[in-house]
Amino acid sequence: MIAEVASPNSLQDLIFWTDATAVREGILAVAALALFLVTAPRGRRWLSWLSISLLALSLIPLLAIILFPQPAVADAEAGVAHGLGHAHHVQRFFLLASFIQSCLLLVVVCGWERVTRAMPKIFIDILRCVMLAMALLIVLWDAGINAGELITGSALVTAVLGFALKDTLGNVFAGLAIHAEHPFEVGDWIQYDANQAHIGRVVEVNWRATKVITLDEAYVIVPNGQLAQASIRNFTKPDSWSRRSIYVVTPYEVSPQRVQRIILEAIRGSFGVLEHPAPSVVTNNFTDRGVEHWVRLFTNDFDKRDRVDGMARDRIWFALARNGVEIPTATQSIRLTQLPAPPLPEPAEARLARRVESLKRVGIFAGLSSGHLDRLAMEGRECRFAGGEPVIRQGDPGESLFVVLDGSVEVSAREGDGLPVVITTIGPGGFFGEMSLMTGAARSATITAKGESCLLEIDKSTMRRVLEEQPSLVETLGRALTARAGERSTLLARDGRREDPPQPDLFQRIRDYFAM
Fold this sequence. Notes:
Strand order of the largest sheet: 4-3-2-1-5
Shape: elongated
Largest sheet: 5 strands, antiparallel
Helix content: 40-55%
Number of strands: 16
């Protein structure tokens, strides 16, 4: 008898329970969800999974009424009404929560993200939790339950849960700080501790941890609390390129600037090496093996940085080998391998002949005999200067002359507090400093090596011995200096600069300077 009346009572209860409020809330929830699915940007519709799930859960109370009808007895009427009321509030919670979630997505995704950058997932998750709590409070208030009393009554439970979840809560707040400060974003390459193996690309930042994939294809989950206390290196910010460093050791016999030119030419166009910012090479250290060079290059392919470094090293090795530069290895006093013989130094006769040929092109030495030129060539000191290195500075005292054997130098002068002005460039066979050599006058210009240059320096003591052997050279040198000074005055006047004041008798100045 009970079974016969159960079905009609269940149907009546279902009709009674499905009131206009539930229907209205269901229509609003479906409409808000449909509006989001239509207007959401591509790739963001997946955020509607919670709204869809809540709509599906709102059907559970209906199924419960149908599948589990209440007994149709007089004493159970009050219980039936009470049970229907609870089911009605549960359904209202799911419908209201789904509607609020869809509205949240419409505001955050369809509105906010069309104006500015996408909101991080952790903020969306927190807002969703807040919206769920708001829907629950609304339903409880409508059911006549004071939510404040529930919160007060569960204070002890809240304290216990807070103590148990302190690490989790710390990770949540650390995640919020990471998203607020933006030390990195999804897709950035970061290093999250001192271990070089702990470098990876960020694939996700959620409310608890940050997920990273390293170059070894290892999937690493780092708690946000650990990241908040670490020094994070971001290789992708502020610019997309990052610098790579390669160290190369070359023999001491090879000049650093020659090696730098070879390396820069070698890595130009190498895989992943950018032209801007341009690579550079500096002399980093002097070691037991040789001169250590620091090669600094830039690349946008940080995920392929091992290949970028390796191919650059390959090019450097081949370029050094082509130019006869051997990379030295650490050796002991006892060698078990036969090393190739080092290149023979330049014979003394060839070096002397090269110096004499350069001295013959010096105008003021035109009247010297071959013997005197040989003396100057033998007693002169050969000096090497790096590019950009000053040889002499304007205003400094001096008593020597320089002849350019190889390379070139730049002549510049300054008037008063003005900026230095480049006057000319002196190449092989050129000379400078003749007035300081012959009269002891201060340097009238600054001479700077334009590239790696080799100069021959003739000092006062060597010149004194030549003049003592042939005093008549004073007149010859004096006339040559006078002509040289006139050429310089003409060059200064052509550049719009003040000419040098007239020089006193150069012949007497030379005699006084050399005490003749």
